[in-house]
């Protein structure tokens, strides 16, 4: 793209909406990418992103999506970014968090009907995407609602003991398809809950997923726990699920 006119990649529509919720204390802000080529009569695949504002601003997911559609021949797909109050993020995204149950209920039972009543999106093959704890809540959404979610993009997933326990309890995960990338330098990541070796935990999670027959694409690449790493991985992750 260097030295080229990139203006066509910005010919897209991003709509901001507010979704009412009876399970959360507040309505939830979302942003929705309506891509070039979207037609109301043809149902489009949809990617649901945790940390919606960050996925759009730091992950540049809208630009990556339009590039894939215009340059790689991927069919137009909608991106839904679900915003989060950073002060409540840990409570909503961690499986043992006080607000986790309410958030996942909202996501599956209020957000999905809102999107699927407003836009013509495919109800099969929904994709969940998340970074760090966003990947954690995405995986647990799939475990709680396997009839709704079977595809997960994990960018440096913050998979700790509670996730390991949840996976160990599963008898069969052959229905789950997961694309996972983790940075080789993520061995001492500082978080508000402590410092963790996410590389080791992702390797442990990989073993558990493989034991349960999940369809897993797992990659370790040079990188740290930052958006600069995840942004570079976005096109490959999206293509994995969306390329025919």
Structure notes:
- The protein is of the alpha/beta class.
- It has one domain (7-242): Alpha/Beta hydrolase fold, catalytic domain (Rossmann fold, 3-Layer(aba) Sandwich), CATH 3.40.50.
- Helices cover 37% and strands 22% of the residues.
- It has eight helices and ten strands.
- The chain has helices at residues 52-57, 61-71, 89-93, 100-118, 133-144, 161-168, 198-211, 227-242; strands at 13-19, 28-34, 46-49, 78-82, 127-131, 151-155, 177-183, 189-191, 194-196, 215-221.
- Strand 6, helix 6 and strand 7 (177-183) form a beta-alpha-beta unit.
- Helix 2 runs parallel beside helix 8 (227-242), helix 4 (100-118) packs across helix 5 and helix 6 (161-168) packs parallel to helix 7 (198-211).
- The longest helix is centred in the middle third of the chain and has 19 residues, at 100-118.
- It is globular, with a radius of gyration of 17 Å.
């Amino acid at each position: 793209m260097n030295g080229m006119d990139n203006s066509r990649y910005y010919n897209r529509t991003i709509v901001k909406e507010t979704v009412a919720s009876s399970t959360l204390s507040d309505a939830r802000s979302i942003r929705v990418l309506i891509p070039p080529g979207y037609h109301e009569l043809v149902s489009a695949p949809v990617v649901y992103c945790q940390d919606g504002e960050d996925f759009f601003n730091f992950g540049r997911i809208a630009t990556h999506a339009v590039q894939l559609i215009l340059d790689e021949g991927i069919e137009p797909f909608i991106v839904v970014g679900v915003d989060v109050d950073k002060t409540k993020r840990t409570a909503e995204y961690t499986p043992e968090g006080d607000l986790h149950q309410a958030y996942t209920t909202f996501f599956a039972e209020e957000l999905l009907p809102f999107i699927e009543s407003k836009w013509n999106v495919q109800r099969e093959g929904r994709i969940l995407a998340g970074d760090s704890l966003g990947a954690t809540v995405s995986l647990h959404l799939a475990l709680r609602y396997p009839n709704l979610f079977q595809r997960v993009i994990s960018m440096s997933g913050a998979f700790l003991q509670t996730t390991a326990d949840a996976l160990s309890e599963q008898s069969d995960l052959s229905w789950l398809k997961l694309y996972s990338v983790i940075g080789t330098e993520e061995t001492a990541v500082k978080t508000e809950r402590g410092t963790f070796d996410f590389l080791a935990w992702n390797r442990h999670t990989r073993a558990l997923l493989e034991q349960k027959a999940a369809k897993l694409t797992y990659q370790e690449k040079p990188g740290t726990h930052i958006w600069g790493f995840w942004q570079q991985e976005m096109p490959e992750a999206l293509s994995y699920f969306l390329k025919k």
